[in-house]
């Protein structure tokens, strides 16, 4: 299990070693590395100094100022074309690193319309869908909910809840974002709450899967906790650790 790969193709190529399958819970793209501001699409286009400033504003939750700064930087540039070129370059490398079989869903910074072009045979992309792996039923719901960050794949709460409902009862519930529990949503380094899903929490309580697995929060206050009978696990910020989390049964 991996999540929040954010451009780490080198370690991704080894993440499935010794496993029967790899499960990826999204965020393949690296737009801006908050730990190393020289990495990602944004500094490649605008330099490290501007990346420093954007991170400073976002960390201070001054989102309107951050958007205004970004608007000025993008003035005169075809933003969609520039970002798509950079994303395509990353996807070509990252999807090539996936072993067979891989089961993957989208993160909030991913661009779902491009995935069919890069997902090779052996990589199954799921969102609001189920898959049987080793006799257990895995349910997948990708993306994030609406936030002031306005990342590429944020969806309405009602749409997200509908995709969860479509899964029914599963053994392992896989999502990019965590359930809406403070200890699972708070990032201790960014010093802010990331947005979790109340519908995901309600689904866990109602359907009682064996596991609920997710990522999104890079340095959570709690990496795992039990909700009822369900073991909830943040499978980790793979971009920085390079180490997958193993699920055995």
UniProtKB/TrEMBL annotation:
InterPro entries given for it? Answer: Calcineurin-like_PHP (IPR004843), Metallo-depent_PP-like (IPR029052)
- Residue ranges of the Calcineurin-like phosphoesterase domain? 2-220
Per the UniProt entry, the signal peptide is none
UniProt name for this protein: Metallophosphoesterase
The record lists the organism as Streptomyces thioluteus
Species lineage, top-down? Answer: Bacteria, Bacillati, Actinomycetota, Actinomycetes, Kitasatosporales
